[in-house]
Amino acid sequence: MYDRNTVYIVGNARTTSDNAITQNFNSFFIGFVVDRTTGEIVDVSCSATISTTEKFIASLFLGKTLKYFDQNLEEEIKSRYFGSSQKAIIVAYKDGIKKYNEAICKKS
After folding, report:
1. Has residue 20 got a pLDDT over 60?
2. In whole angstroms, how far apart are CA 40 and each of 8, 15, 82, 102?
3. CB 22 within 8 A of CB 16
4. What region, left, alpha or beta, does residue 49 occupy, with left being phi > 0 and alpha being psi -120 to 50 degrees?
5. Is 32 exposed, middle or buried (CB count within 10 Å of its CB: 0-12, 13-18, 19+)?
6. Which pLDDT score is estimated for 75?
7. What is the pTM of this model?
8. How far apart are CA 3 and CA 66, in angstroms?
């Protein structure tokens, strides 16, 4: 399904104890399928409890990059996502960037 030049990266974050995601999964995570050369995010899924949430979060990230932190993407998340996991999404994104760069640098 995915090109051989892709890698799978999971970004993790904590959510508040009363968050439904925490109740179901104990933490929040986003799975990124990323082109290893360009850093482009080609697929996304996350530990959401509502399918609309997962689709919306994917729409924010698809076509963006994990090569570097995108301040505009953080602002877009803050201005468009008003669920209780807003901060966790940003933290998971930053964790994904860190893990992507660690994985790619190890291969170089």
Report:
1. no
2. 12, 26, 25, 16
3. yes
4. alpha
5. buried
6. 98
7. 0.87
8. 17
Residue given tokens 């104990």 in the structure block = 26
pLDDT band at 60 (very low <50, low <70, confident <90, very high): very high
Sequence-distant (≥ 6) Cβ neighbours of residue 9 within 8 angstroms: 31, 32, 34, 66, 96, 99, 100, 103
Residue 27: C-alpha distances to residues 2, 13, 47 (Å): 26, 6, 8
Mean of pLDDT values over 13-38? 75
The per-residue DSSP string of 54-70 comes to HHHHHHHHTT-BSSS--
Q: How many CB atoms lie within 10 A of CB 15?
A: 24
| Residue 66 clears pLDDT 90, i.e. is over it | yes
